[in-house]
Amino acid sequence: MTREAQVLPFFESRGVRNAGRRTGAGRNVRQGAALAKKLFIKTYGCQMNVYDSARMADVLAKLGYAQAEEAADADMVILNTCHIREKASEKVFSELGRLRSLKERKRRNGGSMVVAVAGCVAQAEGDEIVRRAPHVDIVLGPQTYHRLPEMIARAARAAAEGGAGRGVIDTEFPAEPKFDYLPAPGLDGPSAFLSVQEGCDKFCTFCVVPYTRGAEYSRPAAAVIAEAKHLVSLGAREIVLLGQNVNAYHGAASGSAAKEWGLGRLIRELAEIDGLARIRYTTSHPCDMDGDLVAAHGDVPALMPFLHLPVQSGSARVLAAMNRRYGPEAYRRIADELRAVRSDMALASDFIVGFPGETRDDFEETARLVRDIGFAQAYSFKFSPRPGTPASVMAGEIDDDEKASRLAELQSLIDAQQLEFNEGFVGRSVPVLFDRTGRKSGQLAGRSPHMQAVHVEADDRYFGTIAAVKIEHAAVNSLTGGIAETIPAKPEAAEGAAA
Ligand code: SAH
Ligand code: SF4
Ligand code: F3S
Which residues in the chain show pLDDT less than 50? Predict the structure, then answer.
């Protein structure tokens, strides 16, 4: 699957919330009155950014901002940005160019527009953004968006005093965690994101995340459980636990138990919430797959049999140069352990091709690992040298044509595997949580336990429910079928069996 334009696998987000998902019934702050101020957030990058965008919308809803359908209608536009690869970052500056004309047009018509740049490009580039794009009013990092109301007030004062080039910059890593200052989240559909961990201490040599998101931080277990219960009370059927390194989770214990909780313990506790049918987590690092988390895949039925566990390369030499701290054999062992406790466990991965010094033999090792493991999904990227990272100055740069040809080769291998995996479901009955409208009217789409996108002809009554779908057709990126039966409220104990 090609994923150059997008960092993480299953959500592409357009407006304030993901336009592909449907606004949940519990959500009313977004509609607002006709005279309310209008907000438009465009989100790039990973699910953590999707979560953050939603939380920024929650913060601004308190100031009376309702959702705008497009930037042109908005009084405030936030670009929530991603710095992971060059293409991702550069997109932001072209979008800022477009916003500049919109802002000028609004001003000519007697209106105004506040432009804010949030997220990882904001964190990495700081005031450089205002230098390149003086019409930007606010630059805020991923750890400071709880202070947005104050920033908006400061930006209004700056605009009154002189306007362009006087943007408010707040890219600190404040001591107080933002989660303590955010309002309770709203819900956009039956599958809800919940950030439990942020930042990264791993320092893979190619990656900007430790610099843009800062040091690893885990939210206390009690706060996570309370947010999960709140989301379920609003109608969430599935919770996706998020973190740049989510399985490094080590939250302060809930209640009086002395020891910190790992992700396995947290998942076991969340599985007790009445009405919560499915739990997932993403993205994980192989070194943090501890025994308890692996075991949870065997004994927590609500924990879905799908794991995104990026390996990056199959070559021990390249993995060492990447500072991944594991070798291909350790990765194979984890896959075996997971499949020993849950035989239908599906794995997904990320790959980087053309890392500095990657030889043809190293690349062959990656292809061998792909064939050995058998991935249900995988995303591959050409190495993109990121400023300030150790790999950006490593010797052995790979020619772009060679990178492109390795990428194409790997992707065709992955596509074939993905198709084969999906074809294995034709004729079977699969429980699907319907969480979005389909491409055509009268269609709904949802996810199988193994994270496959499933499209069916079904009316709106099925939205937010889990129904058994008889799979009729498989493609590389989706399944289609027909509804076989509706599954009642707490069906997941039977999900594996139904597949
Ligand atoms: N925390 C996750 C990955 C986060 S970034 C992990 O440790 O695996 C998402 C993916 O982007 C990575 O898995 C990697 O495949 C890719 N990526 C990150 N930096 C990159 C770079 N400089 N060039 C190309 N791909 C990169
Ligand atoms: Fe980046 Fe590595 Fe941290 Fe993942 S584990 S976020 S790739 S530094
Ligand atoms: Fe991109 Fe930042 Fe996520 S760099 S991948 S938005 S953590």
Answer: 1-33, 489-494, 496-499
What is the predicted pLDDT for the residue at 257?
A: 59
pLDDT in tens, 70-128: 999 999 999 999 999 998 888 999 999 999 999 999 999 999 999 999 999 999 999 99
CATH of the domain at 63: 3.40.50.12160
Alpha-carbon distances of 237 from 47, 271, 280, 488, rounded to whole Å: 18, 11, 11, 12
State how far Cα 54 lies from the chain centre.
12
Tally of domains in the chain = 3
Q: Which of 113, 140, 170 is the last residue of a domain?
A: 170
Of 246, 200, 139, residue with least CA distance to 389: 200
If you measure from the C-alpha of residue 381 to the centroid of ligand 3, how many angstroms do you get, rounded to a whole number? 15
Ligand 3 pocket test target in 6, 13, 42, 48 with most atoms within 8 Å of CB: 48
Ligand 3 contact, 208 CB (< 6 A): yes
Domain that holds residue 396: 178-423
Q: Are 178 and 209 in contact (CB under 8 A)?
A: no
56: which strand partners?
none
Sheet order of strands, 346-353 included: 306-308, 346-353, 377-382
- CB of 202 within 6 A of ligand 2: the answer is yes
Q: Are residues 238 and 312 in the same domain?
A: yes
Residue 79 Cβ < 6 Å to ligand 3? no
Encode pLDDT of 135-151 as tens digits. 999 999 999 999 999 99
Mutate which of 42, 46, 90 for ligand 3? The one with the most ligand atoms within 8 Å of its CB, which is 46
In this prediction, residue 181 carries a pLDDT of 87
Same-domain check for residues 153 and 197: no
CATH of residue 447 = 2.40.50.140
| Alpha carbons 194 and 197: distance in angstroms, whole number | 9
pTM: 0.91
Question: Which of 139, 170, 201 delimits the end of a domain?
Answer: 170
- Residue 272 has a CB neighbour count (10 Å cut-off) of 10
203 lines ligand 2 (CB under 6 A): yes
